[in-house]
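Journal club side-thread
Mid-discussion, someone asked how the predicted structure for our own chain would compare to the paper's figures. Pasting it here so we can look after the session.
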Amino acid sequence: MNKFNKGKTLGVAIAALSSLSLAGVGFAAWVITLTVGGTTDNISVKVADVKDERMTIAHAKVGTDNAVNFDATSGGTLLQVSDEGSKEDLTFGIEFTLEVKKDAVSTFSTSGGIKAYVTGSDLVTAVDTNKYITLPTGVYTSDKAMESGTDYAILGSEFKGLSSDKQSTDKDGNVTYTMAKTLTMGWGTAFSSKNPAELTDEGQLDDYITKLNALKALDTKTFTLTLKPFLTA
């Protein structure tokens, strides 16, 4: 059972355990898997510095959709699935609550939002340097990139449309939102932004295999996803 800190701060980290394994790379078989979640021994959770107490994230955790598989799709010509049970799954879920103080509710609901960033050097290398995989929209590879980025993982407009059972207002007018959000990763430009099973350029086969082996070799056993709300997008 995963346990997450309930700190009342702006940024709350959601830790995601991941493991990459590669088997039988060649003309007919490859397997890459990435698993999000895991035991508490494999999870690191940190709390970002408080900068604006008008917004507080708490109870952050990985949701029930806790697995991401960078795996082969069925079929393929150059690279094929090696396990009949293999299935690509690039989405995972997160859950959290967000409290917005009364005086900030109107501004946040019309122009605020939430960004995120990951920490984990090999995951960052796979995304930024080698372009093997991509992160969900609004998720960045550093806190600096997050601060200057213009994409939001979760936009304020999503809060405006929540049903009444997903939000509550206390006697002081502060609003608490209960959120569940699905985030989607992807294949990077190193694989033409496609699942490798969809690649058909035989002249690039050795390059594809080299990249798959390199992706497998990266130590991405742990990474941390940190959420942060912004009052003005």
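Post-session note: The first helix runs from residue 105 to 111.
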